[in-house]
Design a protein that fits this description.
Elements: H1 4-9, H2 19-26, E1 30-34, E2 47-53, E3 56-61, E4 67-73, E5 78-79, E6 92-95, E7 99-105, H3 106-115, H4 117-143, H5 146-158, E8 162-164, E9 167-169, H6 175-182, H7 186-199, E10 202-203, E11 209-210, H8 213-220
Antiparallel strand pairs: 1-7, 2-5, 2-7, 3-4, 3-6, 8-9, 9-11, 10-11
Helix pairs in contact: 3-4, 5-6, 5-8, 6-7
Amino acid sequence: MPDKFWYLRRLNLFEEMSNEEVEQLSHEFHMWRCDARSSCLDQATDRVYLLKAGRVRLYQLTADGHELTTAIVLPGQMFGIGSLFGNGHATHAEAIEESVICEAGAQEFMAMLARHPLLMAKVVMTMAKQIFKLEETLESIAYKSVPTRLAELLVSLAKDGEERADGVVLPAYPQEELGKMIGATREAVARSLGEWRELGLVTTGRRIVVRDIGALRRVASGAAPHRLTATL
């Protein structure tokens, strides 16, 4: 497995730092692998985490025990940064797939930030984005229908999808996972995907293929879906 320096050197978060600074920084982190479907949080609540490889789902538990996904963390992004302000594990984190994670103590990481103002600015921006995403998620659940929320999610996932002749192949997420990401049941997600499949907007299987991204954008804006009229 590549060492911590190899991973850190390839992350945009540290692109303005010299090799010597990144090497020094790597000594502050403990790197480990997290199995798919496992918790990515240490028992200690004063830790911050940096994802090197894989995908991690952040979620909160509602009053009735349902999981509400608040973010999908991708390589180069951080989570657990609430511990910098004494919030501990207010959010749960689960690996969607096998992931490589680096962790450091909150106080040690704060000392790093003090030595590198640009790194501090990037971390603050990361926190702001996560807060904005959480507010956006809660507002969407409160005011938008399941098909609208699902269409918004698929359009967003398409940005990281694989373009093919027949459409955009989305990253692999089970329907249950998609439901958690929009605060809906797997059955509700399956109904919307089934309708869109009949209309020719998507194909489903192990991975969803978006055949008409324009139509999904219209659904995301609140319009009714229409049958695909052109062959991609």
